[in-house]
Design brief:
Elements lengths: L6 H18 L5 E2 L6 E6 L3 E8 L6 E6 L3 E10 L4 H10 L3 E9 L3 E10 L5 E12 L15
GO molecular function: cysteine-type endopeptidase inhibitor activity
Protein name: Secreted protein
Keywords: Protease inhibitor, Thiol protease inhibitor
């Protein structure tokens, strides 16, 4: 026979255990304009994703500079909408997109990322600054090829 008085308590316990398990999972932090001038603490080898809105059709694109202890793994422009047909229609009327930077924390200590929204003439319009404190990890980071150019 099932004791229905204990069922809600059991569900709460299961939900708590389930949520604690997810909190321990390691997902790459995704940062946006809302995280401008913030400081994050990550372990060595952690992948950090930065997503910033841009207007490439208007000549406004994000450029990135990072400390030596951070390696740029990906720099890609994405449409604002995941559906390609919706994106094409949207881009005709409203040419917005998202610049996505994936950065690997390879060096320990204080690191900085500065993203600058620039016009085609190279004039800075806006800045996004992120401070990264990289702590030693028990796991050795994998070798990373940096895509950054000077």
């Amino acid at each position: 026979m099932v004791n229905f008085r204990l069922a809600p308590l059991a569900l709460v316990a299961i939900a708590l255990i389930f949520s604690l398990g997810f909190m321990r999972m390691s997902y790459p932090p995704v940062l946006t304009e809302a995280d401008n001038n913030s400081t994050i603490v990550v372990s060595q080898g952690t992948l950090i994703e930065i997503r910033l809105h841009e207007r490439p059709a208007s000549g406004l694109i994000w450029c990135i500079e990072a400390s030596d202890g951070l390696a740029l793994e990906r720099d890609i422009a994405l449409p604002s909408f995941p559906d390609p047909i919706v994106s094409i229609r949207h881009m005709v009327k409203n040419p917005y997109g998202i610049r996505c930077f994936d950065i690997r924390a390879i060096g320990r200590g204080h690191q900085n990322v500065t993203c600058t929204l620039e016009s085609l003439q190279g004039r800075p319009i806006e800045k996004f600054v992120l401070h990264v404190e990289v702590e030693k990890s028990d796991v050795s980071p994998t070798a990373v090829k940096s895509c950054m150019t000077e």
